[in-house]
Amino acid sequence: GGSLEEGLRRNNPHMKHINFVKRGWITLDVTPSTVQADFWEIDGVEWDDTGDATFRTAFRTTAGSRRLEMAADPTSARADAAELAPEMPLPEIPVERQT
Q1: Which residues of 28-52 are buried (b: 16+ CB within 10 A; e: fewer)?
Q2: Of 52, 57, 59, 66, which one's alpha carbon is 20 to 30 angstroms from that of 25?
């Protein structure tokens, strides 16, 4: 028994974070000494759901390590970071065809 999420966790131990309820994204910080993935979420899964971003969890590994460990906090914002990606496009809008 159990939920799909529980089944995925039980049968796929390499999957460290599973969530079917909220939308989110991962920021990946890569440096010569560490690689860290920070998981962020917002409430809901609908296209127009908005809300504050919530830090959910993070995993990292260090140079020379073969282990993945949980990190307590997200990586710090970088002053030299590239510009953010543009906003997601609006849902497709019908266009009248000329005859």
Answers
A1: ebeeeeebbbbbbbeeeeeeeeeee
A2: 66
Cα separation, 79 vs 82, whole angstroms: 9
pTM of the model: 0.64
| Counted domains in the chain | 1
In a domain, 31, yes or no: yes
Instruction: Give the model confidence (pLDDT) of 67-81 as tens digits.
Output: 999 999 999 887 888
Q: Which domain holds residue 30?
A: 21-70
> Looking at the DSSP assignment, which residues form a beta bridge with residue 38?
27, 58
- Is 15 part of any domain? no
* Token duo for residue 1: 């028994």
Asked if 45 and 18 touch (Cβ cutoff 8 Å), the reply is no
What tokens does 97 get?
């065809």
DSSP state of 2: -
